[in-house]
Design goal:
Number of domains: 1
Shape: globular
Protein name: Cupin domain-containing protein
Region (Disordered): 1-20
CATH topology: Jelly Rolls
Number of helices: 1
Strand content: 35-45%
CATH superfamily: Jelly Rolls
Distance between the termini: 41 Å
Radius of gyration: 14 Å
Helix content: 10-25%
Organism: Streptomyces coacervatus
CATH architecture: Sandwich
Strand order of the largest sheet: 1-2-3-9-4-7
InterPro entries: RmlC-like_jellyroll, RmlC_Cupin_sf
Structural class: mainly beta
Number of strands: 9
Largest sheet: 6 strands, antiparallel
Length: 128
């Protein structure tokens, strides 16, 4: 049976405000995420349907707090919370120092990640 830890994950990287250590298993991606800064993902999700993440995620918060905005409400997840984030969410707050595990369908996550990285690169100052 496959397994992974934050230390053994072979994919992802250090993107400055966030460190993403990940591994793919069959149809799913396991991400260990650490946020160094509070990030509002609204500008990063521009170009996705409704400018919202369309990928579902199952997760567990090890440390800190994160808030996802939905069309009709917000959900805040804190240390010790397991969560399910259905399609149509936007992460709008991540407490600096937050650490969480996220499991997502890999093909849907890949589509979302491509848009996020394109937007992230366009927001970086030249030479950074």
């Amino acid at each position: 049976m496959p397994k992974v830890s934050r230390d053994t994950a072979t994919e992802g990287g250090d993107y400055g405000p966030v460190v993403d250590r990940s591994e793919e298993f069959d149809d799913y991606t396991v991400d260990f995420l650490t946020f160094r800064e509070d990030i509002d993902h609204r500008p990063l999700l521009k170009g996705l349907p409704d400018d919202r993440c369309q990928c579902p995620h199952w997760g567990y918060v090890f440390k800190g707090e994160l808030t996802f905005h939905y069309a009709d409400h917000d959900e805040t997840y804190q240390s010790g919370d397991a969560f399910y984030a259905p399609p149509g969410h936007v992460p709008v707050h991540t407490e600096p120092g937050s650490e969480y595990l996220q499991i997502s369908p890999k093909d849907e996550l890949r589509k979302t990640s491509e848009v996020i990285m394109k937007n992230f690169e366009s927001m970086r100052p030249p030479g950074a």
